[in-house]
Amino acid sequence: MDENTLNNLRKNYQKGELLESQINPNPLRQFEIWFEEVFKSNIYEPNAMILATSSGNKPSARVVLLKGFDERGFKFYTNYNSRKGRELTSNPNAALLFYWMELERQVRIEGRVEKLSKEESLEYFNSRPLESRYGALASNQSEVIPNREFLERKFFELKEKYGDNPPMPESWGGFLLIPELFEFWQGRPGRLHDRIVYEKSEKSWKIYRLSP
Ligand SMILES: Cc1cc2nc3c(=O)[nH]c(=O)nc-3n(C[C@H](O)[C@H](O)[C@H](O)COP(=O)(O)O)c2cc1C
Questions:
Q1: What's the CA gap between 195 and 55, in Å, rounded?
Q2: 91: three-class secondary structure by DSSP
Q3: Which of 63, 123, 139, 146 is least enclosed by beta carbons within 10 angstroms?
Q4: Residues forming a β-bridge with 173
Q5: pLDDT of 203 above 90
Q6: Which residue range(s) make up the domain with 66?
Q7: Left (φ > 0), alpha (ψ -120 to 50) or beta: where does 191 sit?
């Protein structure tokens, strides 16, 4: 594709606004308000979020699914030995990003992660469809494997072995990201977008606007 075609790809955002007079003083509540609106608009996988991690000088990012949020923070599940798992274990500072293009909205969240308790992870693991539980069991996530057959063979061997009750892998579980900073971005016409930041200070949230 030539550069001109890309250079001419742009949208004029006009689906909403985010004004200080409208926002909730609690960013988790503001997130919930936006998330409910996103959910109602029937967009595809509204809970898909980009998780950025880093250890040393090599940042990395990938999509994971948000599986719950409350006053404590944001939950997702993964393999603790995967690249992200290892990076989060050595450096718990991480960022999440939601981009809901249909509503011209972006939310950035920064904070620190903690592992969820084994009980909480197990409860979620057992609520997953059987195939997904076997998928988690068969995959040493982010390890190099010889080919696809290797993975499928392992999947079926484990199914033979455990039937309807696959155990949760030792290396599998949830993380909770405890937020310290949020930025809510709403696209506006003429690139004069709204950017409202909530930054944790002591026990309250400092709220300010950034230039787009
Ligand atoms: C829509 C979507 C949802 C995903 N959800 C998860 C998830 O919840 N947990 C997870 O470990 N990987 C999930 N993945 C796969 C990750 O993006 C990634 O490939 C995998 O976790 C390995 O990442 P890592 O090597 O950086 O650890 C998802 C991918 C996509 C595209």
A1: 28
A2: coil
A3: 146
A4: 78
A5: no
A6: 13-126+170-209
A7: left
Q: Is residue 163 part of a domain?
A: no
CA torsion angle for 81, 63, 108, 185 (degrees, to 10)?
Answer: 180
Query: For residue 78, which atom of ligand 1 is closest to its CA?
Result: 11
13 is in an annotated binding site: yes
Q: Would you name the residues annotated as active-site residues?
A: 191
DSSP string, 108-168: EEEEEEEEPPHHHHHHHHHHS-HHHHHHHHH--TT---S-HHHHHHHHHHHHHHHTT-PPP
Instruction: Quickly tell me which residue has 């390890």 as its tokens.
Output: 143
Cβ 52 under 6 angstroms from ligand 1: no
| Beta bridge pairs of residue 93 | 112
Q: What is the pLDDT of residues 88-104, one digit of tens each?
A: 999 999 999 999 999 99
Atom of ligand 1 at shortest range from CA of 60: 26
Does residue 8 sit within a domain?
A: no
Q: Is the pLDDT of residue 184 over 90?
A: yes
Protein residue with least CA distance to atom 28, ligand 1: 64
Residue owning tokens 């990938």: 62
